[in-house]
Write a sequence for this structure.
């Protein structure tokens, strides 16, 4: 995740070269920079934009078997998708997952960061404990939480004597359900189990971000507030949290693009789930393309995923570009 | 202006970088260890045999081959995943990228014929069959399953039976019950078990093919072999009253399954029967391998087996075969391997360990256990029907759509919407 933010800035630098050219003459340094950057720029154009374009082309073709068929299909594949029960369920699930996941990560991340910021002993130990899950692959997280939430094992062994018989991710109930198109719109209970696993994995990242943010707030600010008679609660609510807003924006962007294209966690933990209560576009795309050999349909799903991520990333990049220069 | 343009460029680059950054983790590990071996002309055997029993069988087969041909280097390129779901994905991307393994596991029937053969990716093996004298050693119905337009495209190594109802002997004896032969008997038995607080039927549909598997046995039992076959040629429509009747029966059966079915895979469901928590289980006879090899149960002592309701004398056949992809450099070596695979010796070293029966009719029954002997006998006399869930009856794309429809049906139990989906998916079958 950190790598990406770095990438964005190198990309900005890469394009800064031509703007500089107008003012000054190109020195050897500039040529050197251009030579060094050229391979990665070319590779990215080929392997990122080239393949995005290619996927886009496949998504409007008739290639829905093992034999490639490049004839133009128009928007047929997209039309099929949006009428498809499974894809409608996927969109609902993605929305529910994204909203719950980001909200919990932000609240928990701020809370834990503020607690950690109290200059307590063994802080680095706690920091590592919270950050450790980040080191795991989503697949590992998925398998572990699958065991924990299995209705006949895991946490249920403790919950059953208490009279709680939870079905967790096998539950097909959809809360607040009202019919919308073919699907029931609401919060699938099974999705909450997946959100818990995802939160467990990613909260540490938010904690680290917020902790860095808290450390960047000068002590003078807090002291001034205290001098003015603010309580600790007021201090955090009125002063510290508003100062952390730029960090919240970054956390939202990073978490949103993870959650919108999540695949491995869901695939390992629940799969599509009964009645597709835990299915997400990533899983659907994988099964359509590589199991059903519906390459055009799969490409259409991938393009929809790309657009949904772009909806978050593009405004952010535009705004950060404006703020930065 | 220039500044604005460069801002957009930066934006575009940034989006691309951010998008590509996180998605690489899931795919790279798979690709890294495959495909690089072809330069060394190793004989790469691609399969999804990584489970207990099946892996032993494959290794025994490889050992036999290496005794005969010590000079040929072999690479076992098995990919894990139930019923080959992951392996098929890996295979599809390798075949599309013109990087085929030397030989690969493929179910006989539509998966082979409508898939790889139709895509022009397979070499015919007629000369190998003639050279080895196989034409009368495999049943004709089986050779037809691996043939398209008069050419034979793969060598069957084993036969699995899909329509088996496994039951817990102790549970049945304790309750004074007989294993059901018809759907009526099934529901009688199921009601009695339910009254005693025992789950009558185990299901583990975390991977939806298991529910499709149950459904296809109900289809076969309700329609009979002829009508069942007609479904795949388009002669019988999926909104036929007989199909609806099968769907109703399937729906009724789903009222007797374990509650946590969607969190279990097929092995987990088999465990319920082994532990006596559930009484019956419909699964192919690889379940026997799991019972015997992994759970250390005894055939006809701890668990028994009968054909699924109304399918006595019918044999839902699933056959694993290996073929020769086009563009393989060491095709002579591959043919040597296929020859061993199709020999009596090869089949008898592989199948007892895998828990399947040989595809050849002249194999040695004394090497097989009680279940194997009886199934070999049934295979010679029964009517053969291709399995839908395992890709023999219809192409993968259709199977994927059926799996989706079944997944929805298990929860919603809407008969009309289910058959409607099947009808619209079946439009692709008629060619």
């Amino acid at each position: 995740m950190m790598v990406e933010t770095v990438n964005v800035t190198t990309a900005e630098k890469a394009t800064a070269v031509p703007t500089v050219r107008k003012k000054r003459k190109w020195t050897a340094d500039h040529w050197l920079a251009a030579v060094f950057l050229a391979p990665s720029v070319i590779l990215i154009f080929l392997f990122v934009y080239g393949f995005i374009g290619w996927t886009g082309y496949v998504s409007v073709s008739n290639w829905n078997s093992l034999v490639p068929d490049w004839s133009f299909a128009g928007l047929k594949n997209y039309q099929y998708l949006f009428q498809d029960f499974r894809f409608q369920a996927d969109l609902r699930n993605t929305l529910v997952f994204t909203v719950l996941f980001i909200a919990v990560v932000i609240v928990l991340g701020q809370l834990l960061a503020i607690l950690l910021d109290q200059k307590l002993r063994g802080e680095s130990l706690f920091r590592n404990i919270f950050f450790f899950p980040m080191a795991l692959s989503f697949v590992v997280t998925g398998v572990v939480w699958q065991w924990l939430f299995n209705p006949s094992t895991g946490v249920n062994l403790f919950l059953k004597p208490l009279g709680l018989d939870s079905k967790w991710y096998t539950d097909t109930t959809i809360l607040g359900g009202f019919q919308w198109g073919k699907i029931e719109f609401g919060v699938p209970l099974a999705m909450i189990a997946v959100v818990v696993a995802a939160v467990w994995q990613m909260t540490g990242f938010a904690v680290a971000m917020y902790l860095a943010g808290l450390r960047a707030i000068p002590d003078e600010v807090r002291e001034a507030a205290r001098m003015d008679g603010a309580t600790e609660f007021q201090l955090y609510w009125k002063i510290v949290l508003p100062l952390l807003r730029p960090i919240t924006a970054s956390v939202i962007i990073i978490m949103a693009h993870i959650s919108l294209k999540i695949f491995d966690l869901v695939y390992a933990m629940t799969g599509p789930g009964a009645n597709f209560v835990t299915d997400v576009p990533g899983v659907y795309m994988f099964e359509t393309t590589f199991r059903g050999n519906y390459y055009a349909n799969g490409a259409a799903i991938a393009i929809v995923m790309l657009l949904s991520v772009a909806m978050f990333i593009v405004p952010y990049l535009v705004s950060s570009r404006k703020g930065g220069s | 202006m220039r500044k604005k343009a460069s801002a957009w460029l930066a934006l575009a680059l940034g989006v691309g970088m951010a998008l590509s950054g996180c998605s690489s983790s899931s795919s790279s590990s798979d690709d890294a260890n495959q495909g690089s071996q072809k330069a060394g002309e190793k004989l790469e055997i691609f399969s999804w045999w990584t489970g207990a029993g099946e892996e032993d069988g494959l290794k025994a087969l490889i050992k036999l081959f290496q005794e005969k041909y010590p000079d040929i280097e072999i690479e076992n390129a098995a990919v894990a995943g139930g019923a080959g779901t992951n392996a098929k994905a890996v295979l599809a991307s390798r075949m599309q990228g013109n990087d085929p393994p030397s030989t690969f596991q493929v179910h006989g029937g539509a998966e082979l014929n409508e898939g790889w053969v139709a895509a022009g990716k397979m070499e015919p093996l007629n000369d190998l069959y003639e050279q080895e004298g196989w034409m009368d050693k495999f049943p004709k119905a089986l050779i037809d399953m691996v043939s398209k337009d008069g050419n034979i495209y793969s060598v069957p190594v084993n036969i699995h039976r899909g329509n088996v109802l496994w039951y817990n002997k102790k549970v049945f004896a304790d309750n004074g019950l007989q294993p059901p032969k018809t759907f009526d008997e099934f529901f009688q038995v199921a009601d009695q078990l339910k009254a005693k607080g025992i789950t009558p039927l185990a299901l583990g549909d975390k991977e939806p093919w298991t529910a499709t598997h149950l459904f296809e046995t109900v289809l076969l039992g309700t329609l009979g072999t002829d009508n069942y076959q007609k479904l795949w040629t388009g002669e019988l429509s999926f909104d036929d009253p007989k199909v609806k009747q099968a769907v109703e029966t399937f729906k009724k059966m789903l009222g007797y399954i374990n509650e946590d079915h969607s969190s279990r895979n097929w092995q987990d469901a088999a465990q319920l029967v082994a532990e006596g928590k559930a009484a019956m289980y419909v699964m192919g006879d690889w379940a026997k391998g799991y019972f015997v090899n992994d759970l250390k149960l005894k055939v006809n002592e701890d668990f028994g087996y009968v054909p699924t309701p109304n399918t006595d004398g019918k044999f839902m056949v699933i056959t694993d075969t290996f073929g020769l992809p086009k563009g393989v450099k060491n095709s002579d070596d591959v043919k040597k391997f296929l020859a061993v695979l199709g020999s009596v010796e090869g089949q008898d070293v592989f199948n007892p360990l895998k828990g399947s029966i040989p595809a050849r009719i002249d194999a040695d029954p004394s090497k097989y256990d009680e279940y194997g002997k009886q199934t070999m006998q049934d295979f010679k006399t029964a009517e053969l029907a291709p399995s839908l869930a395992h890709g023999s009856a219809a192409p993968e794309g259709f199977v994927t759509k059926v799996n989706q429809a079944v997944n929805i049906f298990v929860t919603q139990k809407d008969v009309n919407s289910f058959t409607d989906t099947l009808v619209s998916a079946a439009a692709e079958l008629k060619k």
User: Anything to note?
Assistant: Chain B is about 50% helix and 15% strand.
